[in-house]
Amino acid sequence: MTVFLVRHATAGTRNHADPKDHERHLDENGRHQARLLIELLADAKITWIASSPSPRCTETVEPLAAARSLEVKPREALHESSDIDDAWDLLEKAARRKGDVVLCSHGDIIPDLIRRAQLRGMDVPGKSGCSKGSIWALEWDTDRFVHGTYTPVKP
Q: What pLDDT, on a 0 to 100 scale, did the predictor assign at position 16?
């Protein structure tokens, strides 16, 4: 069983002065990255997709969900600045589901989840990162993540 942890695709430039910055949508490059997920995860047996409720996250996984006839389930635990324990609980529950799962989140949540999985014994050979649109494939073995592979997705 694999959980694909996806960072949202590119969505323009963050503007801390804008109170509606959290409502940013994907830009043209981000929409391209979102469509690439369909190809990159073509062999995965995805049965469930969940996302931060932020538009840039849901828009990242919507093309994949449509291609698989699945719904994107919004989950606050994946939202930017969410409690890491809540995000971890959701990640573990996702790993115990039947079939592969896609979770879309943010650059402040994903590195903490990866670090926690590594501290619990997950092997990460090769490169690590958390670029926009990137995918972590986390392999689950009954009670923990055993292997993590990072794939950047260029716009």
A: 57
Q: Domain ranges in the chain?
A: 2-151
Compute the distance between CA of residue 148 and CA of residue 72 in angstroms, rounded to an integer. 23
pLDDT digits (tens, 9 = 90+) for 30-40: 999 999 999 99
Evaluate whether 135 touches 5 at the Cβ level (below 8 Å).
yes
The secondary structure of 13-54 as a DSSP string is: ---TT-TTGGGPPP-HHHHHHHHHHHHHTTTS-EEEEEE-SS
What fold, for 2-151?
Rossmann fold (3.40.50)
According to DSSP, residue 24 is labeled P
Q: Is the pLDDT of residue 17 over 60?
A: no
Residue 44's contacts (CB-CB under 8 Å, 6 or more residues apart) are: 2, 4, 100, 102
